[in-house]
Known about the structure:
Blueprint: H1 3-23, H2 31-46, H3 50-62, H4 64-77, H5 79-84, H6 86-110, H7 115-121, H8 128-138, H9 142-166, H10 172-192, H11 196-224
Helix pairs in contact: 1-2, 1-3, 4-11, 6-7, 6-10, 6-11, 8-9, 8-11, 9-10, 10-11
Amino acid sequence: xxxxxxxxxxxxxxxxxxxxxxxxxxxxxxxxxxxxxxxxxxxxxxxxxxxxxxxxxxxxxxxxxxxxxxxxxxxxxxxxxxxxxxxxxxxxxxxxxxxxxxxxxxxxxxxxxxxxxxxxxxxxxxxxxxxxxxxxxxxxxxxxxxxxxxxxxxxxxxxxxxxxxxxxxxxxxxxxxxxxxxxxxxxxxxxxxxxxxxxxxxxxxxxxxxxxxxxxxxxxxxxxx
Length: 225
């Protein structure tokens, strides 16, 4: 099948999944969960390789960075609220980012994985482009890092609403920080469902998490190797 088929097929499946999610807002019908499942199944049924799929669909990946920059508009609209909570944001995001690196490297060590796998998994909570860069810089395997980052985002989207409910988190900034720190860009899409302020907080949390991960990951991983 044509590479264009997979590109437009992905867009169509995502659009359909989004409409379905709007009608039946179940976490299991989240477009970022449904779309990969359907497309992977389609590739397997058609016997197509990832290279065939990615030949044109890489255009979607290339849109991640400008989409991330586009979050600046939403941040600007709620800049005053974010300024009033700057200490909470810095402490929460810094702690969360470091905890993510420590748990990733620690669990890798616990289960007997080698140093390269520690370096591969350590940046999983950063947004995808940054996580891949950090993984390559550390000597990890960026392909596996991409999968780990995707799984982290999906798990954050699934577990995040449960944490918000169980812990009775009502502050929109706190909700946003939860999603942005733990689930990067996937978390932002979920945070926006809780309101624009939560979405803005998630955006700044994602960017700060990437920055802290970039600075702290090499040092923390070296302690476990």
